[in-house]
Amino acid sequence: MEAVDLKAQTIEKIKSTEFHVFAVDNWTDLGVNNGAELVAPSYWGFFNSTFLPIVMLYAVLWYAVNTVVTTHCWTSYQEGIKRKRLINVTTSLIHSFISGVYILAFFCLNTRLAFASPLHYYTNLDSQIIILSIGYFFYDGFDLIVNDKLSISTGVLLFHHTASIFVLSTAVLSQKFLLYAYWAMLMEMSSIFLHARSILHISKLSTTSMIGFSKVISYANLIAFIVFRFFVQTFLVGWAWTNLDHMHRAFAFIAFGGGLCFFIINVSLFLRILHSDGFLLSSVVSQDRLDALLEDNEYSDSFESVAQSEKKELLDV
After folding, report:
1. How far is CA 157 from CA 27, 141, 164, in A?
2. Signal peptide: which range, if any (predicted)?
């Protein structure tokens, strides 16, 4: 009870202090004051704690969500590549909506806290949304390995999922950098529009009954991409630089190295979207340079002749 009161008092102090976008986080009373940020992160917690079982439980939950989507959504489409892709993206949309909206709401209600204490703030309850997302990345990564053809696109997605699991797990296992992970997961707000755009294109609703809505989603997707990916990444790098002397170099490497990797992925994806939606001429960026992001990993030689027309449609998404 005393710890709760101390945390509440500290949050009130934050509200009364001068606001800085990039601030040094010295608010150790907001979390577990174990000095974990000053030593190299340990990942033994994967195996000698309840962390991995909880992650697997959430992964099974996402499998159940996918099963429900498979049973009740896109039932008018015949079994095949297009329906499989629609089901997969719909599941991804559900994850993005839950995690993105939750974290955005948390930031709206705790804006000063989000800027002041990305390092030290931690509660077991608030960490659950991060563990839920780790479970999703485990589920989706396993689904990619089992059901998809090995390709550049699959490799990019697996790298993204692996890196996400690594970064998010670092926050939970160290009980530090929870709100830093929240900032990173705020990119899921962009993914809401990205997945909605994909669904509209794959289902061809963007060219039939939802042309106007599709255009709105297209522009909203670009705006959300800039705000929730590029701006957020700018904050993450700026904050890490400001707090560089207050963390172990391993955490700094994760912040800057991981930030660089995700920046490359985001720039490539942004160019892919601009090219696909007609904002970027093919003379500026060749199609060959965007091949790694084409969604062609759904196809295998065994049914290539059957799925050729569907493949052509999906490659245009």
Report:
1. 36, 8, 10
2. none
pLDDT in tens, 69-85: 999 999 998 888 889 99
SS (H, E, C) the chain: CHHHHHHHHHHHHHHHCCCCCCCCCCCHHHCCCCCHHHCCCCCCHHHHCCHHHHHHHHHHHHHHHHHHHHHHCCCCCCCCHHHHHHHHHHHHHHHHHHHHHHHHHHHHHCHHHHHHCCCCCCCCCCCHHHHHHHHHHHHHHHHHHHHCCCCHHHHHHHHHHHHHHHHHHHHHHHCCCHHHHHHHHCCHHHHHHHHHHHHHHHCCHHHCCCHHHHHHHHHHHHHHHHHHHHHHHHHHHHHHHHCHHHCCHHHHHHHHHHHHHHHHHHHHHHHHHHHHCCCCCCCCCCHHHHHHHCCCCCCCHHHHHHHHHHHHHHHCC
Q: What is the C-alpha to C-alpha distance for residues 196 and 203, in angstroms, rounded to an integer?
A: 11
Instruction: Give how far the C-alpha of residue 303 lies from the chain's centroid of Cα atoms, to the nearest Å.
Output: 32
User: pLDDT tens digits, residue range 234-293?
Assistant: 999 999 999 999 999 999 999 999 999 999 999 999 998 998 888 876 555 555 554 444
Whole-prediction pTM: 0.88
CA angle, residues 214, 220, 224, in degrees to nearest 5: 145
